[in-house]
Amino acid sequence: MEKTFSMIKPDGIQRGLVGEILQRFEKKGIKIAAMKFMMISRELAEKHYTAHKGKVFYDDLIRFITSSPVLAMVFEGEDVINIVRKLAGATSPEAALPGTVRGDYSLDVEYNLIHASDSKESAEREISLFFREEEIINYELITAKWVYPK
Ligand SMILES: Nc1ncnc2c1ncn2[C@@H]1O[C@H](COP(=O)(O)OP(=O)(O)OP(=O)(O)O)[C@@H](O)[C@H]1O
Ligand SMILES: [Mg+2]
Q1: Which residue range forms the structural domain that includes residue 24?
Q2: Is 75 annotated as a binding residue?
Q3: Is the CB of 118 under 6 A from ligand 1?
């Protein structure tokens, strides 16, 4: 089992898409391991997006992600890093396919509703930026044996 970090961004909260987005992960069978509704500080935003420092969109991105609350989440499941990326969809609106969160609800490369870790290393780094160890809940999901039969 693998863990990934995901986040509904300020546009998702403001547009009332939290339930719609979460439902997709729940229905897929993915387990919620942690969740936090929060404002991101400038300091945390800079740490989270450190890989983008120096890019033309960096200042805008920091402003956007700190502008309104987000829902930070940890999901757990087999190959969940790749699967959550797939369900989120491509970054740019013309590439994001229908059926993905971005493909269905976003028209902008920046305001694209959801974040999803892109590798095992990013997932570990991002989870520890947003959550303390005791905030990640270890429990048995009763549907697991129907979602992962083997
Ligand atoms: N060309 C751009 N112009 C404006 N904003 C951008 C651009 N490219 C990326 N962003 C913003 O920066 C975020 C991080 O970019 P990245 O390249 O990591 O995309 P991603 O991995 O698809 O998205 P995320 O990291 O949020 O899951 C994007 O989700 C988007 O909000
Ligand atoms: Mg990324």
Answers
A1: 2-140
A2: no
A3: yes
